[in-house]
């Protein structure tokens, strides 16, 4: 179940990001095939941080997943840039010839 997020204007960087909640005992496994050099690199990095390979990989993958999802959903703008963004949304450019051509095409699923 997803936890509701505050609007972007109320989002705070010091709060943890919850993408999804799961019960504490819900675990699974992921099997990966990687080259020996990559495995050694991961093991060395994990050792530097005092973590196991699994802890290091899960934390790294989770952090990257959150970043990817937030890049698709949340961005911050100062008030002036926000106003310019809203103005651009409210006044889109007129369709050009390529867009008109695309919209005239019959979709592949209707052929």
From TrEMBL:
The keyword Transcription applies. Belongs to the TacA antitoxin family. InterPro entries: Ribbon_hlx_hlx, TacA_1-like. One of its GO terms (molecular function) is DNA binding. It comes from Methylobacterium variabile. The keyword Phosphoprotein does not apply. Keywords: DNA-binding, Repressor, Toxin-antitoxin system, Transcription, Transcription regulation. The lineage of its organism: Bacteria, Pseudomonadati, Pseudomonadota, Alphaproteobacteria, Hyphomicrobiales. Pfam families: TacA1. PANTHER family: COPG FAMILY HELIX-TURN-HELIX PROTEIN-RELATED-RELATED (PTHR35401), CYTOPLASMIC PROTEIN (PTHR35401:SF1). One of its GO terms (biological process) is regulation of DNA-templated transcription. This is Antitoxin.
């Amino acid at each position: 179940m997803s936890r509701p997020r505050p609007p972007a204007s109320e989002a705070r960087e010091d709060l943890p990001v919850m993408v999804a909640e799961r019960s504490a005992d819900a675990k699974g496994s992921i099997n990966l095939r990687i080259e020996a050099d990559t495995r050694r690199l991961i093991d060395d990095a994990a050792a530097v941080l005092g973590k196991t390979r699994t802890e290091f990989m899960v934390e790294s993958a989770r952090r990257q997943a959150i970043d990817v999802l937030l890049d698709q959903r949340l961005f911050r703008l100062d008030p002036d840039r926000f106003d310019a963004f809203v103005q651009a949304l409210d006044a889109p450019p007129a369709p050009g010839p390529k867009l008109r051509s695309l919209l005239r095409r019959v979709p592949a699923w209707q052929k």
